[in-house]
Amino acid sequence: MNKIFDYSAIASGLILLFLSILTFCDVFGRRFLNSPVTGTIELVEIGMALVAFLAMPRAFFLNANVSADFINNLNLGVFKTWLIILKFFLMIIIMSLMAYATTKTSLKFMSNERVTIDLELYFYPFYFISAFGMWLSVLAIIFWFIKALSETNSKTKEF
Question: Do the Cβ atoms of 122 and 128 come closer than 8 Å?
């Protein structure tokens, strides 16, 4: 599973690289050639959503989210286990609902064939990719939870 999360993050990085090149070409064309790249704004808006949702699974799995370090560094014993459980339930509920809603929206966009304004690209492929990233995040949260509980239990048994 770790490889899948890594590949998702690599795809996110490649999309970000493509978006930066596209933005450079758009700014250069607009400034020096008086001819901007058509649809740059649409592609950057959609691409940034893809970047975020494809990078999330790896962050969840590695527990690399923004957190308060003073809480993580305290020796809380059993209370730390309860914090991990609470964190798991909050993350899994929120991410599952987001993934479900995005999947439903992408199916709706696929049936009504809605497109973007400039390039007339269908919305549903981008929504399906975002939903895939969110479902991967749900899996990453589950694997993180199992790993975090096993680490916490092994640390408490050492004492």
Answer: no
- In tens, the pLDDT along 31-78 reads 999 999 999 999 999 999 999 999 999 998 988 776 555 555 666 677
Q: 84: Cβ–Cβ under 8 A, 6 or more apart, which residues?
A: 145, 148, 149, 152
pTM of the predicted model, to two decimals?
Answer: 0.83
**Where along the chain do its domains lie?**
2-158
Specify the 3-state DSSP secondary structure of 122: strand
Burial of 120 (0-12, 13-18, 19+ CB in 10 A): exposed
Give the residue from 41, 12, 46 showing the smallest Cα distance to 26. 41
